[in-house]
């Protein structure tokens, strides 16, 4: 489902003089869930909860901001627990796979920024550490092949003052690799907008992606 979110004004008075904000429109599709922030303030959240196994909707919304500003997106793939698996205990037991695409346009409809390898994406939840966990009859999160690696969001990672110089660049993936569907097909994506994620579509379960718009 494509929804329009309430516009949020993000004004930065750096000199004590009121600055004029621009209006931007955004389209975001994620497998399975995302939250988008501008300079650390939430402007949109996926309307379908992360607890939903199959969620492939896109969201369209407007926001206001003063350039330069930082876009921060938290993107999560569905997992039943920290093993990183879904459909645990059934014949469909498997690792999920993620994917994210976004485009931002100005009030005139001109592209401002799209998801690409220019973004930086840090994976903060990786599981399972060994893909053989997928085939275990009794997978236990945190044990053996089903161990996981997790960390909290770095403080201020989605703001201008954060030093992300050691963050990796986003990994680009083909439509064939991600198999986007549903809401993805309802958006007219810019030709340069790419599907991005952490280093592994299956094992990277939560990623933080950021870019600065000048």
TrEMBL record:
Domain of life: Bacteria
Residues in the signal sequence: 1-20
Keywords: Signal
Protein name as catalogued: PEBP family protein
Source species of the chain: Litoreibacter janthinus
């Amino acid at each position: 489902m494509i929804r329009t979110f309430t516009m949020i004004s993000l004004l930065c008075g750096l000199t004590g003089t009121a600055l004029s904000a621009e209006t931007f429109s955004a389209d975001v599709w994620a497998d399975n869930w995302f939250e988008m922030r501008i300079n650390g303030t939430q402007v949109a959240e996926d309307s379908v909860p992360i607890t939903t196994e199959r969620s492939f909707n896109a969201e369209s919304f407007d926001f206001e901001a003063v350039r330069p500003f930082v876009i921060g997106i938290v993107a999560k793939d569905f997992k039943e627990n920290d093993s990183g698996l879904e459909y645990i205990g059934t014949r469909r037991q498997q690792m999920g796979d993620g994917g994210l695409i976004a485009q931002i346009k100005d009030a005139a409809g001109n592209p401002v920024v799209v998801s690409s390898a220019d973004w930086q994406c840090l994976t903060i939840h990786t599981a399972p550490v060994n893909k053989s966990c997928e085939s275990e009859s009794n997978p236990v999160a945190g044990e053996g092949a089903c161990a996981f690696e997790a960390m909290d969001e770095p403080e201020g990672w989605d703001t201008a003052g954060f030093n992300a110089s050691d963050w990796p660049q986003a990994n680009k993936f083909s439509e064939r690799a991600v198999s986007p569907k549903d809401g993805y097909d309802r958006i007219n994506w810019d030709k340069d907008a790419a599907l991005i994620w952490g280093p592994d579509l299956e094992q990277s379960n939560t990623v933080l992606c950021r870019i600065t718009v000048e």
